[in-house]
């Protein structure tokens, strides 16, 4: 099948690619809120794990490669605040109080999951394969371990097999943590999450919640395109994005042919992976991971 020609760059985008000055970038979550036109759910966001934390105070779980989903007591919403059109049966037994977790279809299933949960008209055949993996009681009293215990009791009473509480374990030290990471990665997982057991519920980015992965990820805002060459002639060659600290970054790897034919819109938020930083502070070996403007 002959690929759809990549659209010609507008004069504005041409200027952007030439390095024209841009306003300071809007933080990713603020950009999501502006796009959605709805308040952002009150979420706790993770910092990156580094050595030096007292692991005796943390509970460890697998980092799920799912779609963050916030239940506000009446409806299920993406992290942007946009409504998730879940089937009525899927949310029928959810409580009147808030829940936080991820919609999940299993490992290596993110693309299928993402397509399913973004449909305006949900398909039962897809949602029957989705579980709601819960890991927080927003606004709940007590430490995290206490909230998890109450969440487990609540889910047991709901009697819905697609509702689960993410398993939490403890590790003795950094060596045991790294062994746990190797185990999860060997089983096809993405990484680990560490939540301080005595942490009161809070929102925003905090080190009471940590993520540990072999590669790091970050978000950036698309502001331009680079045309493809060779086998990508007539398609997208690379996305030009602004990182959270205002740097210009090129994302040319990690893009599927479908994404190259229909690239993310200007102004959308994307997630990229990287291994380290260059001497000048740019992400090293950065590659496109996914569009995040709707989550």
Can you tell me the CATH class of the largest domain?
Alpha Beta
**Global geometry:** globular
Mean pLDDT: 87
Please provide the ordered H/E string of secondary-structure elements. HHEEEEHEHHEHEHEEEEEHEEEE
- pLDDT < 50 stretches: 1-36
Domain count: 2
Individual helix count: 8
Distance from first to last alpha carbon: 32 Å
**Helix content bin:** 10-25%
What's the CATH superfamily of the largest domain, by name? DNA ligase/mRNA capping enzyme
Name the descriptors.
single chain, 295 residues, alpha+beta, OB fold (Dihydrolipoamide Acetyltransferase, E2P), five-stranded mixed sheet, 22% helix, disordered N terminus
Folded structure, characterized:
By secondary structure, the protein is an alpha+beta fold. The protein is built from eight helices and 16 strands. It has two domains: 11-35 and 216-291, Beta Barrel (OB fold (Dihydrolipoamide Acetyltransferase, E2P)), CATH 2.40.50; 44-212, DNA ligase/mRNA capping enzyme (D-amino Acid Aminotransferase, Chain A, domain 1). The protein has a five-stranded mixed beta sheet with strand order 4-3-5-6-7, with helices on one face. Strands 12-11-10-13-16 form a five-stranded antiparallel beta sheet. The chain has a four-stranded mixed beta sheet with strand order 1-9-8-2. The longest helix has 15 residues, at 144-158. The chain is globular, with a radius of gyration of 20 Å.
């Amino acid at each position: 099948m002959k690929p759809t020609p990549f659209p010609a760059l507008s004069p504005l985008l041409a200027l952007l690619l030439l390095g024209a000055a841009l306003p300071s970038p809007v933080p990713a979550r603020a950009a999501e809120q502006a796009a959605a036109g709805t308040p952002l759910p009150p979420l706790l966001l993770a910092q990156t794990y580094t050595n030096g934390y007292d692991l005796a105070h943390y509970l460890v779980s697998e980092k799920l490669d799912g779609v963050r989903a916030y239940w506000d007591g009446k409806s299920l919403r993406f992290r942007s605040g946009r409504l998730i059109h879940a089937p009525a049966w899927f949310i029928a037994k959810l409580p009147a109080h808030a829940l936080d977790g991820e919609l999940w279809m299993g490992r290596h299933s993110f693309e299928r999951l993402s397509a399913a949960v973004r449909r305006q008209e949900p398909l039962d055949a897809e949602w029957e394969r989705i579980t709601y993996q819960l890991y927080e009681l927003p606004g709940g009293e007590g430490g995290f371990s206490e909230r998890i215990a109450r969440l487990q009791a609540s889910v047991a009473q709901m009697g819905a097999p697609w509702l689960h509480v993410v398993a939490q374990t403890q590790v003795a030290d950094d060596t045991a943590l790294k062994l746990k990471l190797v185990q999860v990665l060997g089983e096809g997982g993405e990484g680990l999450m560490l939540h301080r057991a005595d942490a009161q519920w809070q929102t925003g980015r905090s080190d009471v919640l940590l993520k540990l992965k072999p590669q790091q990820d970050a978000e950036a805002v698309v502001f331009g395109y680079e045309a493809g060459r060779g086998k990508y002639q007539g398609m997208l060659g690379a996305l030009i994005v602004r990182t959270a600290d205002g740097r210009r970054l090129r994302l040319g790897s990690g893009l599927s042919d479908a994404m190259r034919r229909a690239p993310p819109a200007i102004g959308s938020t994307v997630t990229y992976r990287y291994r380290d930083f260059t001497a000048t502070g740019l992400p090293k070996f950065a590659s496109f991971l996914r569009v995040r403007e709707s989550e």
